[in-house]
Amino acid sequence: MLTKRTFVVLLIGILALMGVMAAAAQEEVGIVHYYSSTLGQETMAQLFGTFAEANPGYVVVDNSAGHEDFKTQILVTIAGNNPPDIFSYWAGARTQFVVDADRLLPLTDFWTENNLDDIIPAGVKSAAIYNGEVYNIPMNVHVVGFFYNPKVLADAGFDTPPATWDEFMTMGQALIDNGVAPIALGSMNRWPAQYWFDYMVSYTAGADYRQQLMAGEAAYTDEEVQVAMEMWKSLVDGGFFVENANAYDWTDAADQVANGTAAMTLMGTWITGYWDGNGLVAGEDYDFFPFPVMNPDLPVITHGSIDGWAVPAGSSNPDGAKALLLHMLSPEAQATWAQGQGALAAVNNVDASIYSPVMKKASDYLGQVAFLSGYDLSTTPPMAEGGLNMFAQFMNDPSGYMDYLTQTEEVAVEVFGK
């Protein structure tokens, strides 16, 4: 006869066995991403948690790496025999590079079946299409502009940010006279300096010329590039930048703005996530203004980045990857991600009230102008390496920029087969 104790022991055993069987029935979805910061990990954990609740048949196997390490590691990983099922990737030339290597699964049917045209704006969708097929599903959009300390500007006599280059130069000199460096830049890892090159070329030679340069159809030794570099050099020579930019990373530059050592930094909207995480208040402790117009005859554009998700051609669980993708695009997940990362949602059905006043300002600006990805996302990875090296050299010693341009053009000749 079964005793109560025996019954309980058997019941516990049965429940444990059922748990093992349920776990065994779950399919793994392997993911690799570059959101390795504390904020990134926390936000990812939230998304994976809600995904698990909504999709009990799947379990996410999470792996991450820092941005710089990721750039090389992911190319090696997806070229091997055991790629992840899904990975984060920057839209633009980097995705094109992997598409051309036949390493990605087309997601056009996924896009069509889930009516993604209804929720992803056309401008964002353009970052998803390569060779006529969808390969990168957008997750968020970042705008690059000036993020500044309003108190520092006010102390120098400026209640509103500059709209033109002349106004920018006047304000910068006033800040210097007031004992504050106008611009913080942390180019230790090279990429933060790229946005200066982007805007200087786009706003002096035009966005079309800049795109030609990215595609190898123009030369780094062209007069147009020399003019842009000379203007950038004039800022460095004029004391507009905090000294020793290559000794700092982008968060160091953000800290310099926050503590008033510098007035502003040219950075992406992800800086708001960093500052919010440190307790700064949007609209009070920091604010945003677009890069000032340098030539009114040229079109106004904004540089930035679109982060997305791609599925390797060798994914062992593409269905699980697509289920996770669909979850990432839900209004709830997009809101969680946008608020956690200081990003603009990739979809149009997120309540705009989730945005801080500063992010709302960036979002409104994005809706008014054309969008171009930043330098290292607009050209091939090998060319991006050459350019990023040039920017680091320039910030170390801007006087040698012609030599750097000549060296970078040599890389372009090799990369593009000129």
Topology:
Elements: H1 4-25, E1 27-33, H2 38-54, E2 58-64, H3 67-79, E3 86-90, H4 93-100, H5 108-113, H6 122-125, E4 129-130, E5 133-134, E6 137-148, H7 150-155, H8 165-177, E7 181-184, H9 194-204, H10 207-214, H11 223-237, H12 250-258, E8 262-268, H13 270-277, E9 287-289, E10 301-310, H14 318-328, H15 331-341, E11 344-345, H16 357-366, E12 370-373, H17 375-378, H18 381-396, H19 401-416
Parallel strand pairs: 1-2, 1-3, 7-8, 10-12
Antiparallel strand pairs: 3-10, 4-5, 6-8, 6-9, 6-10, 6-11
Helix pairs in contact: 2-15, 9-10, 9-11, 18-19
Radius of gyration: 24 Å
Mean pLDDT metric: 93
What percent of residues are in strands? 15-25%
In the CATH scheme, what's the topology name of the largest domain?
A: D-Maltodextrin-Binding Protein, domain 2
| Number of domain modules | 2
> What is the CATH C-level name of the largest domain?
Alpha Beta
Question: Which structural category fits the helices and strands?
Answer: alpha/beta
User: How many DSSP H or I helices?
Assistant: 19
Measured as a percent range, the helix fraction is 40-55%
Shape: globular
CATH superfamily of the largest domain: Periplasmic binding protein-like II
Name the CATH architecture of the largest domain: 3-Layer(aba) Sandwich
Major beta sheet summary: 10 strands, mixed
Low-confidence stretches: 7-24
- State the end-to-end distance: 88 Å
Total E-strand runs: 12
